[in-house]
Design brief:
single chain; 144 residues; mainly alpha; 52% helix; flat
Length: 144
């Protein structure tokens, strides 16, 4: 039966994947315990993977539905932490990134646009010892 509803199709596929995974887990455990065949554990592992993957796909669909029709600028921080390109990552994390609280949109709640959204403009790269040493490197062999 075709209905054109991608969300419904994903929910049905997620449920079917989880049921199939549970059946394979049960069959594999039964084979391992009742028939004393270690190959049943492999079947259980395959069932676990199918069940896990279908549940993650279901969660991804919930996320896709929650951000449907929104642009990146609608959900991003209005003032994301920025730094100079030559600054070490460890220093940036220690001074800037740890002071900012981030959240994700995976809760299934509808997102609302952030106020005053604009792009993060990169700062002009200041002269650093690293940038000067890279500028002095000769071109690679065979480069135009």
């Amino acid at each position: 039966m075709r209905c054109g509803d991608r969300g419904r199709a994903n929910r049905v596929a997620t449920g079917a994947g989880q049921v199939l995974g549970a059946v394979l887990i049960g069959a594999g455990l039964a084979e391992a315990v009742l028939l004393r065949r270690p190959g049943g554990l492999r079947l259980s592992l395959v069932g676990w993977f199918i069940s896990w993957a279908s549940a993650r796909e279901g969660q991804a669909e919930v996320f896709r539905e929650s951000v449907k029709g929104l642009c990146v600028g609608d959900v991003m921080r209005p003032e994301p932490p920025c730094t100079l390109a030559w600054r070490p990552v460890r220093e940036f994390v220690a001074t800037k990134a740890r002071t900012v609280r981030f959240s994700t949109a995976g809760s299934g709640a509808r997102l609302s646009p952030a106020p005053n959204t604009r792009l993060c403009r990169p700062a002009h790269r200041a002269e650093s010892p690293e940038s000067r040493s890279h500028a002095a490197l000769p071109p690679a062999a065979g480069a135009p």
